[in-house]
């Protein structure tokens, strides 16, 4: 029998039991949709977080004082100083592009009779290339600003001191009764990380250290690398340099910690990908359950239609005609189900991306896999019932009561 | 169609058919049948229920192989043919009309009559015309698009006859074709079969009704798996 006629006759048969065909299909629809949604939303989340981190810069690692995350935040331990920065620079490590140091304090800042308490960072001009702040007004610090009383203020700080949507460049602010001229307004690139560019004030490093705090303590040193592939090796080299400079023995614990966003990003991506794969795998189990449903219904259908099979054999249907009739029926159920599942999955993924605010990404790999799976489920789970039908003897099928 | 009398169509020699019953027992439905049927004949096979006439019909219709003996169709020994080889003979050489479950449920009359041509590889261009011709020959061309479950019993049998004719077979085998019908519809069906015989078609009809058997030209009676009488009806 021609393929076209087999298809037509299979569709006719499925139409006879519309509700049953649809319910059987539902198992496949849900399975495929689940696989598409979970794999796509998972990929969307990974992309969202990666983009956020990239907008902040992933080509550097940071060094903080202390020996754990807690002391890095609260301070304590031997502070990092410009001496550590010089030691790293003097080591001439080939993969290092730039070394950027920060100091930080907290100060009351006033302008136009408004006064707020903010974090004040001391930064070198290299901070711009590394942390990529968005300058909504004016410019970031330059080498000409060393030791001078200029300030880059965060967008939220600007809003509070000068009112929203006003360009404060050229205005002045007061810190500790000293006047600073505003040269720019910064905003952080992403949403998740680096929001300090919105809420803080950035001064030239030397101005903060020499004129305000009077100490050369640093809160953080960021080391920018040329090639992120070797970031781990460069971190190991820098660790040796600092251990040597800070006179820490090999068996002693470090009094500084090093961390890279790239590393965190890789760990995050690995965890999310494994998790996505795992949940996708679990949802794929529902496809197997759907497949068993298809097999069950096809077995019932073969038994129900035994007399029909006998009739078809008596008018000349060969084994392969009966086999393909039932195999095509089960494949149509799963292929159409799979197709609807893909559409549904993509639709729901779109809704989730809009509602949650992550990028709308369809995991095409899984769409292809889902298509292949849905067709194969129909063939694999339809094969046994179809063979059972094809093996019936014309005479036994005709006699069946 | 040209009448070709005395050309041997079906020939059975020493046919036994045994069905296993339990482990070591069996039931013998046919007990040494010898039978020749020529082209153009109109044969009625009669007998009480359990006589083996249905089993004989299955062997004549290439639906089943005998346990013992030789089954010839147009001179070829088909006793050891495979299911698929028999299917091919049924498709091209034999048209069936059954008592029950003749048509595919919830499908149009057209599709039911067309079906054997799909298995026989008849090109689409020919199919439409052939279906309509077959339906016209049994007088129900107007029912082509009706669903098989929306027509009367007599019409169902006509559709079955149209389908039996569609591949232009050597023989039409009707198993109790009127068993389900009232006397008026029965008469219509048997008249159609008679007319087809007059046009040259070989007809074999299995029935337990004497009046139906009397329409045939040759009457074979079978009891307990053996032929007990084989007579020509007077015209």
Q: Can you give the mean pLDDT of chain A?
A: 85
From the alpha-carbon coordinates, what is the Rg of chain A to the nearest angstrom? 34 Å
* Major sheet strand order of chain B: 6-7-8-3-9-10
**Global structural class of chain A:** alpha+beta
How do the SSEs of chain A run, as a string of H and E? HHEHEHEEHEEHEEHEHEEHEHHHHH
Task: Count every helix of chain A, treating DSSP H or I runs of 4 or more residues as helices.
Answer: 14
How many distinct beta strands of chain B? 10
Distance between the termini of chain B: 21 Å
- Specify the oligomeric state: heterodimer
Question: What is the count of DSSP helices of chain B, taking H or I runs of 4+ residues?
Answer: 7
| Low confidence ranges of chain A | none
The helix-and-strand class of chain B reads alpha/beta
Strand proportion of chain B, as a percent range, falls in 25-35%
Largest sheet: number of strands, sense, barrel closure of chain A: 6 strands, mixed, barrel
Measured as a percent range, the helix fraction of chain A is: 55-70%
Task: Identify the overall geometry of chain A.
Answer: elongated
3D architecture notes:
The complex is a heterodimer of chains A (401) and B (235). Chain A has 401 residues and is α+β, with helices and mostly antiparallel strands. Chain A has 2 domains: 184 residues, no CATH class; 129 residues, no CATH class. Chain A has 14 helices and 12 strands. In chain A, the strands form 2 sheets. Chain A has a 6-stranded mixed β-barrel. The model of chain A has no long low-confidence stretch (mean pLDDT 85). Helices cover 33% and strands 29% of the residues of chain B. Chain B is globular and about 50 Å long. The chains are: A alpha+beta (401), B alpha/beta (235).
């Amino acid at each position: 029998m021609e393929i076209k006629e087999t298809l037509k006759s299979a569709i006719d048969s499925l139409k006879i039991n519309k509700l049953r065909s649809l319910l059987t299909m539902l198992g496949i629809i849900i399975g495929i949709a689940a696989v598409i949604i979970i794999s796509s939303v998972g990929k969307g989340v990974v992309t969202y977080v990666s983009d956020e981190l990239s907008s902040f810069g992933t080509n550097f690692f940071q060094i903080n004082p202390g020996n754990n995350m807690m002391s890095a935040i609260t301070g304590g331990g031997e502070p990092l100083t410009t001496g550590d920065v010089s030691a790293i620079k003097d080591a001439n490590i080939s993969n290092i592009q730039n070394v950027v140091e920060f100091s930080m304090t907290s100060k009351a800042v006033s302008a136009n009779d408004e006064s707020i308490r903010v974090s004040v960072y001391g930064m070198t001009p290299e901070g711009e290339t590394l942390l990529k702040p968005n300058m909504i007004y004016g410019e970031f610090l330059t080498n000409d600003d060393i030791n001078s009383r200029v300030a880059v203020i965060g967008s939220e700080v600007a809003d509070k001191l000068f009112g929203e949507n006003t360009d404060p460049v050229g205005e002045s602010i007061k810190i500790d009764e000293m006047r600073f001229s505003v040269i720019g307004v910064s905003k952080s690139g992403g949403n998740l990380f680096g929001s300090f560019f919105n809420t803080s004030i950035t001064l030239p490093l030397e101005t903060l250290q020499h004129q305000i705090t009077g100490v050369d303590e640093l809160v953080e040193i960021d080391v920018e690398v040329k090639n992120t592939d070797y970031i781990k090796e460069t971190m190991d080299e820098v660790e040796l340099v600092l251990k040597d400079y800070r006179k820490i023995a090999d068996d002693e614990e470090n009094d500084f910690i090093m961390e890279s966003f790239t590393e965190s990003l890789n760990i995050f991506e690995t965890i999310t990908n494994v998790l996505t794969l795992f949940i996708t795998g679990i949802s794929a189990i529902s496809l197997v359950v759907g497949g068993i449903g298809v097999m069950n219904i096809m077995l019932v259908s073969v038994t129900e239609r035994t007399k029909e099979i006998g009739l078809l054999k008596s008018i000349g249907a060969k084994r392969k005609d009966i086999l393909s009739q039932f195999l095509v029926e089960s494949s149509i159920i799963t292929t159409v189900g799979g197709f609807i599942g893909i559409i549904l999955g993509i639709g729901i993924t779109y809704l989730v991306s809009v509602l949650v605010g992550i990028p709308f990404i369809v995991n095409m790999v899984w769409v292809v896999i889902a298509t292949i799976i849905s067709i194969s489920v129909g063939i694999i789970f339809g094969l046994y019932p179809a063979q059972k039908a094809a093996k019936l003897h014309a005479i036994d099928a005709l006699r069946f009561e | 169609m040209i009448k070709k009398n005395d050309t041997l169509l079906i020939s059975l020699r020493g046919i036994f058919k045994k069905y296993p019953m339990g482990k070591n027992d069996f039931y013998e439905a046919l007990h040494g049948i010898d039978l020749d049927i020529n082209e153009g004949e109109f044969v009625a096979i009669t007998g009480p229920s359990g006589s083996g006439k249905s089993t004989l019909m299955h062997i004549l219709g290439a639906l089943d192989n005998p346990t013992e003996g030789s089954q010839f169709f147009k001179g070829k020994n088909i006793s050891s043919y495979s299911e698929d080889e028999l299917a091919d003979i049924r498709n091209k050489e034999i048209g069936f009309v059954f008592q029950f479950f003749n048509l595919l449920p919830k499908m149009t009359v057209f599709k039911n009559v067309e079906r054997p041509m799909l298995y026989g590889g008849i090109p689409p261009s020919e199919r439409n015309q052939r279906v309509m011709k077959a339906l016209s020959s049994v007088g129900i061309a107007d029912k082509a698009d009706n669903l098989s479950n929306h027509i009367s019993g007599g019409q169902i049998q006509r559709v079955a006859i149209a389908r039996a004719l569609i591949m232009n077979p050597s023989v039409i085998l009707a198993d109790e074709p009127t068993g389900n019908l009232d006397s008026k519809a029965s008469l219509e069906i048997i008249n159609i079969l008679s007319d087809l015989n007059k046009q040259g078609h070989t007809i074999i009809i299995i029935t337990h009704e004497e009046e139906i058997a009397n329409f045939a030209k040759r009457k074979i009676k079978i009891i307990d798996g053996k032929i007990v009488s084989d007579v020509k009806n007077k015209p």
